[in-house]
Amino acid sequence: MKLISLKNSKGQAFSTFQLLIAAVVALALLGVLMPIIGGINPGTDRLVDALKERINTQQDQPGTLTLTDEIKVSSKGDPYVSAATITEGTGLADDQVKFMLNGYENDFAVNEGNNVLEVRASSSVTYQFGVLCHRNFEELENSINDYSSIIKETEDLPTFDEENDNVRVCVVVPVKR
Question: Is the pLDDT of residue 41 over 50?
Answer without folding.
Answer: no
